[in-house]
Amino acid sequence: MKNVIEIKNLTKSYFVDGNEIPVLNGVNFTIPEGQFVAIMGPSGSGKSTLLYSLGLLDRPTSGQFFLDGTETSQLDDKELAKIRNEKIGFVFQSFNLLRRTSVYDNVRVPLIYAGVPESKHKELVLKALASVGLEEKFMKKQSSQLSGGEQQRVAIARAIINNPAIILADEPTGNLDSKSGELVMKVLQDLSESGRTIILVTHETSTSEHAERIIRLLDGVVNKDETVKSRRHVGKESYTK
Q1: Which residue from 115, 159, 181, 229 could staple onto 176, CB 3.0 to 4.6 Å apart?
Q2: How far does CA 199 lie from the centroid of its chain?
Q3: d(CA 208, CA 228)
Q4: Angle of helix 178-193 relative to helix 121-131, nearest 10 degrees?
Q5: Is there a contact between 224 and 29 (Cβ–Cβ < 8 Å)?
Q6: 29-32: long-range contacts at Cβ-Cβ below 8 A with a sequence spacing of 24 or more?
Q7: Which helix (H) or strand (E) holds 147?
């Protein structure tokens, strides 16, 4: 199985008032295609910074990052944006939906950036919504009319509509109650079982236990990298409206 992600001695620092603040201090690991990985660590350990670097939203200060065999550090912003849109789907804790816009228009945004003909949008949106357990009737609703769990599932539908190989999720259950959180993890579990690579940041042990592997950060380095011996699974009956 090939490695879809390989990082070598990755560092990231921010500069505030001329002072360097190191966040990542030489991170090394590989992630094979199709693996479900949770990144954990205390506040300030660098886990979200690492996720944003993996998503090509933030450039590392030094080190190498190979994405599907391509070394990304020398790519320009246009090339990085193209890779993001084709290969990576993002899910954020705060959903990042347009609140006064329909579910349909929220989910199809990546299709517009990708230049997909509008005649194909409805079919692709319906397919994406169905994959997260939402029916066609949701398309006309505004995102502000949905529950938190429904909004996150819409966000996941948007993330997968271009069929990316990699899903990056930053605290995807952080703003949800336990039942809604289980629904979201059911969706990510299904995406993992369909062959996608899932990488999520979480501080919740119950969420991390859905993953196959947990990478723990401490002070900007990998403190522990372990296989989950007994993964949690969410049954099909969890898809309730």
Answers
A1: 181
A2: 6
A3: 9
A4: 110
A5: no
A6: 29/5, 29/215, 29/222, 29/225, 30/3, 30/5, 30/6, 31/3, 31/4, 31/5, 31/6, 31/197, 31/199, 32/1, 32/2, 32/3, 32/4
A7: none
pLDDT of residue 241: 40
State yes or no: pLDDT of 216 exceeds 70. Answer: yes
Query: Does 237 reside within a domain?
Result: no
Number of independent structural domains in the chain: 1
Domain, as residue range, for 222: 3-230
Give the model's pLDDT for residue 44: 87
CATH number for the domain that contains residue 211: 3.40.50.300
Inside any domain, residue 241: no
177 pLDDT more than 90: no
Sheet with 3-16, strands from edge to edge, namely 19-32, 3-16, 62-67, 70-71
